[in-house]
Amino acid sequence: MAWEAYQQIKKHLDDCKKPLIFFDDDQDGTCSFLLFYRYKKEGKGIPLKTAPKL
C-alpha cells in the first residue's frame, strides 16, 4: 500500500465524529477496538457474534 493511501486513511479516521466500530467478539477484535478507541477517545463499539460455517 502506498504511503499516500495510509495518510488518506489516517486523515479520514482523524476527521470522523462519533465513529461506529464493528468488531469481532474474539480477543483480537476486542483488542483492535480498544486500540482504536484509545487513539480516538470517542465512538461506540458493536461486537459481532460470528461462527464458522461447517
| Element pattern in H and E | HEHE
Q: Terminal Cα separation, in Å?
A: 34 Å
- The assigned structural class equals alpha+beta
Shape: globular
Average pLDDT, rounded to a whole number, is 91
Determine Rg (CA atoms, Å). Answer: 13 Å
**Main sheet summary:** 2 strands, parallel
| Share of residues in helices | 40-55%
- Beta-strand content: 15-25%
Number of strands: 2
Low-confidence stretches: none
Strand order of the largest sheet: 1-2
Give the helix tally. Answer: 2
Which terms summarize this structure?
54 residues, globular, alpha+beta, 2 strands
Verbal overview:
Helix content is 50%, strand content 19%. It is an alpha+beta fold and 54 residues long. It has a domain at 20-49. A two-stranded parallel ribbon has the order 1-2. The radius of gyration is 13 Å and the shape is globular.
Brief sketch in words of this structure:
This protein has helices at residues 3-15, 27-40; strands at 20-24, 44-48. The protein is α+β, with helices and mostly antiparallel strands and 54 residues long. It has a domain at 20-49.
Blueprint of the fold:
Blueprint: H1 3-15, E1 20-24, H2 27-40, E2 44-48
Parallel strand pairs: 1-2
